[in-house]
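Entry 14. Structure prediction run on the chain below.
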Amino acid sequence: MICAILLVATSPLVLAQQTLQLSELPQAPSSATTSADVPEVPGLDAPERGWNAGLTITGVHDSTTGWATLADPAFSYSFNDIFSVDATLPIYFYRLAESRSMHPLPNAQLVNQRGELGDLILGLHAQFRPTLFQYQLTGAVTAPTGDEAYGLSSGRVTFDISNLFQRTYRRYTPYLEVGGGNSTALVNRLVNKNYTSLGPLAHFETGVSVELPLRSTFQTGIYEQLPIGDQKIYGPSSNGKHTVVSGYHVTEDNGFTNVLDIAIDSHTTLSGYYNRSLRRHTDTAAISITYVIRGASPSEEEESFDDLFP
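Output returned:
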């Protein structure tokens, strides 16, 4: 699968993961990062002022459709230490989808698709630092640039608003995210999906990020996605038109996600994730490499293993 041209800063091998990274109370080492902040391009942190850009190349295996390869280019701009904007346009180099033949054989195999676009995603982020925790507000909208027939778009403009609360205790950062919108494409964006949806829904996620030696982080979290009213799922078709599945609970989902980010240098991050959907009984795993133009400032002094784990 390939995703190319713009991405998100600080807002999941992609969030990504996204938007301006929140400062920690008490202050944590500058290397600490959570994949919830940068779901599409892990490591693409907006500087306190100005622009940043990056590209993530990801290989994904879905237990339903198999392997895919994609690129996630992204661009972000920070107006100050509170507000930032970003954009990303996924491009799929390779993915498998159902045949759109008018009369497919009962045992027809999935067919190759190359060079497909996903929906363009634009995000606006605001971060605040109350006394007891860090808070980040993210608003995101999509432009329907994806292919409806293969489940990459609903053909409509969609939106999502999420609230992220977190606080750091030494090397641990528990977090809680609560939000709502009208498309699954903007929920748990780190995990690649082979469908999108249209209809009001609420979503919740909680977990913890742990800082590891050598500027690496591990995050584990559980999520719940609750539809509100009627929903439509847009997926691959077998008759030349997009398939629409309607119903009240068709977009409901829950499960857990584990993410590992390993900083190669100040510009490059190696990432991987495993997602298990308990309701849909599917597994998704991915590995990605990310390069950002404006990398993180190197620490004045490398922390030793003993410093991190006294």
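Residues 1-40, 104-109, 237-241, 299-310 have pLDDT under 50 and may be disordered.
Filed with the rest of this week's runs.
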